[in-house]
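User: Predict the structure for this protein chain, please.
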Amino acid sequence: MPAARESLLDAAYAALARRPWSAVRMVDVAAAAGVSRQTLYNEFGSKDGLARALVRREADGYLAGVDRALTGHSDLRDRLTATAEWITSAARENALVRAMLTGCWSERLPSPALPAVSSTSAVPAQRRADGPLPSPGDFVALVRDRAVTVLAEPGTPKSDTADLARSCELAVRLALSCVAAPPGEGGVAGLVRGALQREAG
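Assistant: Here is the predicted structure, written as structure tokens:
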């Protein structure tokens, strides 16, 4: 029931924008999605299961945006600049993404330390959302590695790949610093372009 699942996740996300997660009621999420509360429980098993799936969906959406930014330009610096801009805009617009990238989870959000679901669970949606959420450092590595995979030319020497990985990580970490402390004139694009230019030296 993919349509119901997405509707329920959309309703949970909308509810979270209006009130703390602790005040979000399953019956209200189901009603907003236009399904029964039993359908909600059948899909996610519990409020923790819904929270896990919601956080995982937002993480997947963030990484899909990274992939789009990396393929939207031809020049390496433009690709990394677009990725850095996506990171900062995604974090600015989505409290769950900001929490995942910074590790700063407010009491308004679902807990990132939700207990894992047993692999014998009869609820497939819970198993799909099972496993630990990546840490902020894991997200840096995920984006860096995706960037290297997209940007490295076939047959690139190992030393050049290491330089590329360093440039990719620099762009990601600069973007994350802009999430914590918004940049001044020139914005994140100016910071990243300047840093990459100096790196290329």
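Confidence is low (pLDDT under 50) at residues 123-128.
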